[in-house]
């Protein structure tokens, strides 16, 4: 079963990790821990915009 929910800041690291591992994303995304601050600022800006909603999909394991 897949659960769709609003993305939270705690999800950001996993989101960037997935994007950076993608065939195209590996050329434009930079995954590091801690995350570069530009990702956090971008997430917060999008999250604060009432016209936008970031969603994540999780399977039954919570991934």
pLDDT averaged residue by residue: 92
Order of helices and strands: EHHE
The gyration radius over C-alpha positions equals: 12 Å
Structural class: alpha+beta
* Euclidean distance between termini CA atoms: 11 Å
Question: How is this structure best described in words?
Answer:
By secondary structure, this protein is of the alpha+beta class. It has one domain (3-58): Gcn5-related N-acetyltransferase (GNAT) (Aminopeptidase, 3-Layer(aba) Sandwich), CATH 3.40.630.30. The protein is built from two helices and two strands, in the order E-H-H-E. It has helices at residues 12-21, 37-48, and strands at 3-6, 55-58. A two-stranded antiparallel sheet has the order 1-2. The longest helix is centred in the C-terminal third of the chain and has 12 residues, at 37-48. It is globular, with a radius of gyration of 12 Å. The mean pLDDT is 92.
